[in-house]
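Sharing a chain and its predicted structure for anyone who wants a worked example. Both blocks are below, sequence first, tokens second.
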Amino acid sequence: MQSQIHPLIAPAPGLALQLASHHFGDAGAARKIYVQAGLHADEIPAMLVAVTLKARLRELEAQGRLRAQVVLVSAANPIGLGQAVLGGFIGRFELSSGNNFNRGFPMLFKPVAAAVEDKLTQDGAHNLRVIRAAWREALLAQPPVNAFQSLQQALMLLAHDAEVVLDLHCSREAAMHVYTGDAIWPEVEPLARYLGATASLLALDSGAHSFDEAHSYTWWQLQQEFGARFPIPHGSIAVTVEHRGQRDVTDALAQQDTQALFDYLTHIGAIAGEAPPPPPLPQPATPLAGSEQLVAGAAGLLVYRAQVGERVTAGQPLFDIVDPVEGTRATTVSHTDGVFYMGREVRYVKPGDQIGRVSGARAFRTGKLLSP
């Protein structure tokens, strides 16, 4: 293992920020896998999985079983790790700007397409190399001006040339689920099976410019632009993995999820060995645009009427909101047949607060499909 330090723009005199990356296997290998955790710095289960993954990767490297370079960033957000307000950990948004750390990544289809149009051939492997080189140049051509942008650039430079990009997160109170692109679902499905994903949510473009989409959607755009004339492979199988909820921090779950990731990497040949057959997918993949996002209609105490991870039907009660003064209850029901895959960890809510999500097979939402 080789570790590298990537300095970020300092937010103030006397302060320093840096990002650490850990590199396993042959740096010159033809294949590269990129894994990061903690982009939302308060999503602790993902970082525990990454720590467990790091120890296992060192063992595999010593055994000579790595068939690809693996780059691991186990704490992907040093800015967020240092943020707290009155004892409350704030890791999802940058306090100085209000920006979500997993929104607004640079979408570089246009400059990359312009740079490669005269360099593509009928050799798909050549086209991969040309596009990745142009992508790196496009990233470097946009100098960051603050700590937030320098973090985004550093992460993209580490990941843009990887064939698999795994962005490990967790949700508020949730079952295991994944987000990925429609076009790459066949390649991602084995991962969802190994992880036991209760929901697999698909979108080409959620409108959020999230880290995974900055990779997969850009490749899809390049395929649409040039695919009729030149072979453009799926250059980045990018997935956001949601390791349940914020309280699901146990060594047992981290070991379980690490094994699932290793089974997937073995399945695709990045690790030498024989992977077990992918188990059945717990639930079919569904469009992200079919995910119902439930909000509180009143202030009060949030009482669950269904279990997170449970399959529910339209009309089924999911929550009661109890007025602590009057004792009255307002019931929130699902309007969708699907999986109740995410809830809210804080049991007091105000009107408009997001309280849950249910996957659904029928797309009905448009615009920005992810929460802010």
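Comments welcome. The mean pLDDT is 97.
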